Amino acid sequence: MLTEERESNFMSMHGSAYLSLLHNHIDICRVPFSDRGSRLLVFKDPSASCLSVKLAERLTTLDPDIEAYLRRPPFIEELYLIDEEGNELEFEAQTNPNVVYLKSKLGDFGMVFQDRRTLSFGIPPQVTAGLRFHVSPEYWKCLDQGGMFRSVRNLTYKTTGEILLNEITPKRGGYMVDLIVKAGEDTAIILTIHPDHETDIVPQPFSISYAMAEQRWTNWFNRVPQVVEEYRRTYAYAWWIMGNNLISPQGKVMYESMAPSKISYVGLWLWDNAMHSLAYRHIDSDLARNQIRSMLAHQSDSGMLPDAVYDEGIVTSLAHPFTGEVTKPPILAWAALKLHETDPDLEFLKEIYVPLSRLNAWWFTYNDDDGDGLVQYNHPYSSGLDDSPLWDYGMPVESPDLNTYLCIQMGSLALMAETIGLELEGQMWRRRAASIVHRMIKDMWDAEAGLFWT
Question: How confident is the model at residue 214 (pLDDT cuts 50, 70, 90)?
């Protein structure tokens, strides 16, 4: 039994208390200020009072190199606060999950998300001030036989204040914008970055955008399970990342899903999504199920699932260290059963049972060259153990971990089949799971060493 002191450590915390715990805990020089579903990433320059906005998009229509986005400059850079004379203001950034305050000699500017595509900057009351920023809406590149120019994204900026200066000046292949407004009691300047030609975006008073952002994040934290006091700040930061790293559906990303990083891992990865679903099941069952749906949406005719999914495409093969098909270990059925334990949903199990059965068949059909009933890795990156010594003697490799995953997968499919009324199929999966265990013991187990060998 829990002691009285231990029980008190689990006392319920309101979502707003988690927001307070994270005050100034988010370093936006390294970790972007973003929001659930947004593709906009706001950073502060570590050595200057200015901001930049990068895009959590690969945009392979601009450059087919799927890692080119890592080298792409910010869409907006050199974003300064300016006074009525156009002088750039020094500021100190104070961060929170829902709002960043930029504290200057003119007062506190605020920054929140009005929506997932729109940043809202609150101007201090009754002050004449504004923003200066450089935007690069076009991409260009010299080619062997010429060159090309393409649109990156569109930008719309508006204000609820009285405009005193609005200048757009070509500069360094982009445009420098100076916008100075006379603020009232509740004035905002918004920047909307969007893929289409939206012009009807209505700027809201900053207080409304602030209240919506605060409510959005409070609701998020209200749903997280309780944790003992000593872990609360780290726990809150982890749950903030789980919300901050969600990207909205776009292109091949069919459902709202979590990117491992909006900075350097933009997209969805097969077994990452399975693990993310385990966390989301504690706060939003549909969001958790959609992590699995996002990957099953791209199952090939052969039954294979891709290694990764991003807006413009899917990754099913890689040319490093050699060219081959790439996926990740089969753990989706196990993850789906964990979701079912938390929030039973027979219709979801029926929806995914056949695709997961086809995935299992793919592993045994296309990845068992010697037909011995033990499955192999044909590419090191399919394992998630990219630099493992398992690959020192070349490929393919029959590995204990992969066959253990498949044993668990078939055990999970057995439970799934029985749950949806397919008793005979459940028995078949149990026989197959037992069979792979016996084969592993016969071919891989070293009783003297107490180890399974490849």
Answer: very high
